[in-house]
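Pasting as-is:
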Amino acid sequence: MKAVILASALAISFACGASAQTYDDLLKDEKTPQDVLTYGMGYSAQRFSPLKKINKNTVKRLVPAWSYSMGDNRGVEAQAVVRDGVVYITDHEKTVAVDALSGKQIWKSVIEYPPETTRVVCCGIVNRGAVLYDDKVYRTTLDAQVIALDAKTGKEVWRTKSSSPAEGYSMTVAPLVVKGIVIVGVSGSEFGIRGYLEGYDAKSGERLWRTYTIPAPGEPGSETWAGESMKTGGGSTWITGSYDPDLDTVYWGVGNPAPWNPLGRKGDNLYTNSMLALDPKSGKVKWYYQMSPNDPFDYDGVNELVLADVKVNGEPRKVIMQANRNGFLYVVDRINGKLISANKFTTVTWATHVDLQTGRPVWSDATKAIIEKGQRQRIFPSATGGKNWQPMSFSPKTGLLYVNTINVGWDYEPLPVEQVAHLKAGQPFQGVKRESAFEDPNVRGALKAIEPVTGKVRWEVPGKSPNMSGTMVTAGGLVFTGKLTGEFVAYDADNGKELWSFQTPSGIVGQPITWEMDGKQYVTVTSGIGGVYALRSGDPNLANVPPGGSLWTFRLMDK
């Protein structure tokens, strides 16, 4: 593959001013608001900023500083990163460096991949972002390669092939860099892959380890797969993990088993629909917790794993929080993987509850009728999930999670087991009939502020369509997020009151960040509709939303 570099004179001045990003810089990312080096705005993935110049009183003066055209109609889901006055952003076909104050392009590195690659991408031709480390920009490519670019020039430093689209693999994940190791995951559960995580040497691109999420025959967990179903068992890893430096542990979510129809893969199907705790140096699994054993509904398990210290029964605990596609909000002890709480955060009918002693969901009668009798049943949520991939945020100030939720179900029917053909690598097969269902088609989602341990919803803002953008919360008492109809909105973190809104040119499926330069605070977000919901939901509210990717940065207007 070939990277084409288009540089400008700005690259010369930038090259003189940039400084290397070290592991210590990554450790401090959450507390150094002038930079955003990592996906999730820090290793804990809280997406919380200590900045407060833009706050409840001043946000009404927020205006556009500049916008930059991505020239992409596929959908822009990426989170930007920022260093030394430069904003870096990705999409499926390029990486761009933009001057943070003017919005002028510094360089653009174009990615070429075989057109047949798009055949094995289920849910949008996208990329979710990059990470900055050691004066390099690290990202993945749609045709399952990992690359490092020189942050000053955009020139390719190294490129390593991970897998092949011919085998069903693709990559859309933003990397995680820990102690000089670039950690990435793969997409492709619907295309017969055997999922994995990998670690690469940040300097050379040499692969250091690969950890499969589906055990081979004879390995622990292989007994949870019937016959040879583990060979194409799924278990993709397409959302970036988080990291606890005190425990020296990486946490990563694992996706759904394949095919969706479970009748030919009896058992728990480890380690799909699980969160894994891993050693970053070796990729060795320390512990796992499985949310949806034998998942029939494509509920996945890859959603972001937010790390925080919260009080449980009055005692501080180190926890992981995940709003799962299956509609349960999980709080898990990140030292040992023990379940603390699991509460419904949207309409859920596939399970009655999660047993806190065993950690296992208790299937509803409707799910039993599907599994045991092959009956057609109405199930909530649908495969879109109670929350899809769009990341939530957590505020240590309020103690709340801010979650864009979805309230869409489906009428689900598995094909008879004799019709469930063996899934082959690179060939999609789901093995079910399904049709969307709604409690109220005019209220398909809501932004909710939720207490993590109790699951209590403090406030919510319903929407005609669900928000498929990430949320970001700040010390200024604001929650930022975007709508599929293009509005970029700031809400009061305490009560959900809308305080500010700006109409961008297209729907927002990206992730906001905020940063500081020369004593001034800025907010950056992408606009550009795309992704699985926009492509496949048939949502009538989106009929007149134009495509087109762009990058927007906002600042406070002078008084």
